[in-house]
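Sequence in, structure out. Go.
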Amino acid sequence: MISIIVIAALGLLGYWAFTTLEPGDLHAARQHERELAEKNSELEKELAALKSQLGTLEAEKEEVKEEPAPAPEEEKPAPTTITYKNQTLINELQKLVTDNVFMKVGSKGTRVGTIQKFLNLYNKTSNKVDNDYGAGLKTAVTDFQKDVGTTADGETGPATYKKMIEWLKKQ
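Output:
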């Protein structure tokens, strides 16, 4: 009879152990939840302390407001920056000047496209911007150079870019 009681007790103990076991991820999640609850209560205490300090500072601020404020100094106007209608194109051309870029027939790339965009504006055309410095672009550049009084060789360099920028700024 004692052995039956012992076996029953062990059975109940085994059943209890089996039903109270939980997977590791569930245990870790519950532990994390407890840690977050503790941190939350700490933060609530800190928030209450900060609100108390804020109330004290606002009271001090009210006391300071009662004193007459010094006369404000005369404000200097903020420097203004001029933005032109074609500012993006001006910036691209300025980058060509800064980088000391020279282009001629056979040049390719987005820098050539910048020249093509400018000449489309200058000539009031809508030619395709293909980023290729061909004979047509050389002719258009030569015409522009003649118009502005620079060396009309059909090649572009900082002097030509500066003239392009000047023209854009006048628009």
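Check: Residues 24-65 form the longest helix (42 residues). The chain has a mean pLDDT of 87.
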